[in-house]
Amino acid sequence: MNSVLTVPVGLGDRSYDVMIGDGALEAAAPRLPGIFPRQRAIIVTDRHIAPLHLERVTAVLAGAGIACDPIVMEPGEATKSFAGLEQLVDALLERNIERSEAVIALGGGVIGDLTGFAAAVTKRGVGFVQIPTTLLAQVDSSVGGKTGINTRQGKNFAGAFHQPRLVIADTAFITTLPERERRAGYAEIIKAALIGDATMFDRLDAAGANVLHGAPLARAIADAVAFKAHIVAQDELEHGRRALLNLGHTFAHAFEAEAPRDAIRHGEAVAAGIALAFRYSVARGECPASDADRVETHLRTIGLPWSAATLAHKDWDAGRLVARMRDDKKNQAGEITLILARGIGKAWIDPRIDAAHLVAFLETSLS
Ligand SMILES: NC(=O)c1ccc[n+]([C@@H]2O[C@H](COP(=O)([O-])OP(=O)(O)OC[C@H]3O[C@@H](n4cnc5c(N)ncnc54)[C@H](O)[C@@H]3O)[C@@H](O)[C@H]2O)c1
Ligand SMILES: O=C(O)C(=O)C[C@@H](O)[C@H](O)[C@H](O)COP(=O)(O)O
Ligand SMILES: [Zn+2]
């Protein structure tokens, strides 16, 4: 077993650890009997992940005296839906899950968000454990307790805050991840640096494309998780500061809602959204253009979109995108909230965005 790092998420009696590294699964084994009192674990995963990783997880749990009962969902955003929720809650109830039990989410953000939400509502709340298998899920979605599904109206429009009991971010899982998914996950790492850690950005930028693998990636995963854990511990329910973690997401969720399903990855939309947040900050005279240039150059080096025009889907309409942003969950008093930047590592929250000005900005930025 290689070295495994533990990052605590301090939330009083709902505190938990994020165990990170190659071999985190085996390192977590002694903790598992305390989480699965009926010596069984219902594991929710998807059809891509099951043949790759379910056998290893089942073997480690068996070694801890826990029998596995898998539920295999279809991969893709369509599963993160009311239909997916109904299918999963039904499957949990058919297995007579008790409140004393926990269910395992073995997968990316789709499986984690859906399983966490199903755990939050089934019998008014059963426990859950996150075993994230994508880079995005390891650095972001498995930590912090935001769970939910997409609705017709937009991304994550039905959900609950429900914290996991344990997060096992075993980096061995991501060795089977397609490169496109790896790059998409990296967008949430660079997001952390751009929000509040300029030194981290310098380190990632210096590594260039090498940051996607090996030791630079291991360090980046740990840094991103620690950054997120710190913010979540300060503002679990997003009354204030946690909204910073939404840098790029007001644009991203509008892109995701407007594009055909699964045409763009969440992380790709976030990358383009971050670049736009920096450009909009420059347009308002609040951020040095050289910082926005650095962000775009870094995203290009990684092979991520660095503008709306470099996303895989290109048919955007500024008015429709801003109409989507008018429904964003962060908004207050009918005004759009955006996360902007005064520079690299200096994100801030503006709750009073002029929608007409934003439409005009986007009209010049979409091509
Ligand atoms: N809750 C949060 O805080 C939070 C944070 C960020 C993103 N999200 C949500 O997460 C979702 C995106 O998650 P994602 O990027 O992980 O996508 P995903 O869950 O759709 O997984 C991407 C693809 O990779 C496959 N896959 C997963 N692990 C694999 C592995 N180890 N090897 C090979 N293939 C594997 C999946 O089957 C899927 O096809 C979005 O719905 C987004 O809104 C939530
Ligand atoms: O944990 C958070 O807080 C985040 O905002 C993390 C985001 O990367 C993630 O995409 C999250 O699901 C967005 O949440 P939402 O509240 O904007 O739907
Ligand atoms: Zn995100």
UniProtKB/TrEMBL annotation:
Transmembrane segments: none
Pfam families (alphabetical): DHQ_synthase, DHQS_C
E.C. code: 4.2.3.4
Keywords: Amino-acid biosynthesis, Aromatic amino acid biosynthesis, Cobalt, Cytoplasm, Lyase, Metal-binding, NAD, Nucleotide-binding, Zinc
Catalytic activity, reaction form: 7-phospho-2-dehydro-3-deoxy-D-arabino-heptonate = 3-dehydroquinate + phosphate
GO biological process, one term: aromatic amino acid family biosynthetic process
GO molecular function, one term: 3-dehydroquinate synthase activity
EC supergroup of this enzyme: lyase
InterPro entries: Dehydroquinate_synthase, DHQ_synth_AroB, DHQ_synth_fam, DHQS/DOIS_N, DHQS_C
Pathway recorded for this protein: Metabolic intermediate biosynthesis; chorismate biosynthesis; chorismate from D-erythrose 4-phosphate and phosphoenolpyruvate: step 2/7
Gene3D superfamilies: 3.40.50.1970, Dehydroquinate synthase-like - alpha domain (1.20.1090.10)
Subcellular location: Cytoplasm
Entry's Gene Ontology cellular component terms: cytoplasm
Cofactor note: Binds 1 divalent metal cation per subunit. Can use either Co(2+) or Zn(2+).
The UniProt record lists the keyword Amino-acid biosynthesis: yes
Domain called 3-dehydroquinate synthase C-terminal: residue spans: 185-331
Role according to the record: Catalyzes the conversion of 3-deoxy-D-arabino-heptulosonate 7-phosphate (DAHP) to dehydroquinate (DHQ).
Designated name of the protein: 3-dehydroquinate synthase
Native organism: Maricaulis salignorans
Lineage: Bacteria, Pseudomonadati, Pseudomonadota, Alphaproteobacteria, Maricaulales
Gene that encodes the chain: aroB
